[in-house]
Design brief:
It is a single chain. By secondary structure, the chain is of the alpha+beta class. The protein has three helices and three strands, in the order ααβαββ. It has helices at 17-30, 42-53, 75-84; strands at 58-65, 87-94, 113-120. The longest helix is centred in the first third of the chain and has 14 residues, at 17-30. 20% of the residues are buried.
Amino acid sequence: NAWQSNFNQDNANKVYGQIDKQIKATYIKQGTAQNQIAVYDMYTRFYRWASDRLGENGLVAFITNRSFIDGKTFDGFRKTVSQEFDYVYIVDLGGDIRSGDVTGNVFDIKTGVAIMFLVKSQTVVRQGA
């Protein structure tokens, strides 16, 4: 529902005050795209919510839409994630038929899919240990 243009589409965006405030202060602030409304999509809200609750060590992982990987709109999301986490692993399952990928994906849907693992690890690795 991120691209809903009016309330007559019966898919109104619900406001999540604190999470949306954090998204604006991080993902949106770091972004350069003119129209960043898609950054308020539910899956990026889930990432923000989980990231804000993670301590110094931990893992966030979701299976989501793959649009954050190379979409101009998500440049602020990518930059913020790379700053907030020590390791970022992305498994791009492809399958976005709108971009010409005719192979599909494991979920047999038309939307591209990705699995992202975000790791915070404040553990000091010592050589020879």
